[in-house]
Amino acid sequence: MHETAVVAGILGILERSASAESIARITSVRIKVGRLRGLDVRQLVGAFEIMAEGTRAEGARLVIDEVAVSARCPSCEETFETKGWNLACPKCGSTEAEIVAGRELHVEDFQGTREASDGA
Ligand SMILES: [Zn+2]
User: What is the pLDDT of residues 30-87, one digit of tens each?
Assistant: First the structure.
């Protein structure tokens, strides 16, 4: 399971972003996860709760937007949702389709409270 590695990466990004924006405590985090990543959402949430302890994101709510896998056919330009790696175009049968969504893995945005000393 690589959920813990993913969460570690997310926490690293959050720490850097929060630090740059003078955010003392992160209250909620939204991430996008494509289905092709094969990540278990519940494990992500569980790992986040444990690993965020002692960081600015401790106690933050983790919201996960799952992105369905979709592909685009270069022959007929049909875009379709697919399950797993079956990329046969439902319209023309071509197997040359390219994945256009489903590989996402990034922090979409997060919210938090600023440091009290922040004059701006
Ligand atoms: Zn097609």
Answer: 999 999 999 999 999 999 999 999 999 999 999 999 999 999 999 999 999 987 677 8
Cα 83 to middle of ligand 1, angstroms: 16
Q: Is 51 helix (H, G, I), strand (E, B) or coil?
A: helix
Domains in the chain: boundaries = 3-68+102-114
Distance 34 CA to ligand 1 centre (A): 23
Class of domain 3-68+102-114: alpha beta
Kindly give the distance from the C-alpha atom of residue 102 to the centroid of ligand 1, in angstroms, as a whole number: 19
Residue 50 and residue 21: Cα distance in Å, rounded? 24
